[in-house]
Design goal:
alpha/beta; 236 residues; 7 helices; Rossmann fold; 7-stranded mixed beta sheet; 3-stranded mixed beta sheet
């Protein structure tokens, strides 16, 4: 297994991962750390969709794009926001192809609607949640949609890798995706409901059991409930 990204935003993936220039990656919940996405795109030249409804995430994406346009090796660009200490060192030598990136200002959920997106009580932190009582009481209203609907709109027939760090919404989003018979080869999911002790009904355990027992996924790495799965049967 290889780890791609910062200490905060990185993920474990197989060293022999079957990803290339024909592959489609959906990265849900990117905030102000897209180190994993930049490393993945630079290494495999895949198409990466960054999916996040926060204005700070879009601003960060625009700043990173400008950073590379200005030649990252020669500039001392300072990104706005809550930036990790190892961010610059992690991304400065990369050569990502921004023609293969697309930012979608959208939340991932189980269908198309407008929902409350709850903020953290400390406004330094970028992460927000569609799940009530996950963070504070203040919220924005954001557009959300299912993975199936996003794929149809973007013209994607398959997803090769799906990464989700969506602060508790992963349960609804992934169950709906499986109901829609969409099976990415690789799944990288942070199980925030359980991680933050907000899962009294064992939804996380039930979803993981479904993935393994019913949908042919195997756990490759469990990094403090940041779990990397691979599907043993790949149907494109």
């Amino acid at each position: 297994m290889n780890r791609l990204g910062t200490n905060y935003g990185g993920w474990y993936v197989p060293s022999d991962m079957k990803i290339d220039e024909t592959s489609v990656v959906y990265s849900g919940g990117v905030g102000e750390d897209i180190s994993f996405d930049l490393l993945l795109q630079s290494k495999y030249n895949c198409k990466v969709y960054l999916i996040d409804p926060t204005s700070r995430a879009k601003k960060h994406y625009d700043e990173v794009k400008q950073y590379y346009e200005n030649n990252a090796l020669l500039t001392n660009t300072t990104f706005s926001g809550d930036i990790q200490n190892d961010y610059h060192s992690c991304i400065k030598s990369l050569t990502p192809n921004f023609d293969n990136f697309k930012f979608l200002n959208l939340g991932i959920w189980k269908g198309k609607e407008e929902l409350k997106f709850y903020k953290q009580t400390n406004d330094q932190y970028v992460s927000q949640s569609l799940v009530e009582n996950m963070f504070g009481k203040d919220y924005d209203i954001v557009n959300v949609d299912s993975i199936k609907n996003i794929m149809e709109k973007e013209g994607n027939e398959k997803i090769d890798l799906l990464k989700l760090d969506i602060e508790g919404a992963e349960i609804e989003a992934v169950n709906q995706m499986l109901n829609d018979k969409i099976y990415p080869k690789y799944l990288l999911i942070e199980f925030d409901l359980l991680l933050k002790n907000k899962d009294p009904y064992d939804k996380t355990k039930k979803l993981i059991s479904r993935l393994i027992l019913e949908e042919n996924y195997t756990i490759l790495k469990n990094d403090n409930l940041n779990i990397t799965f691979v599907r043993n049967i790949y149907t494109s």
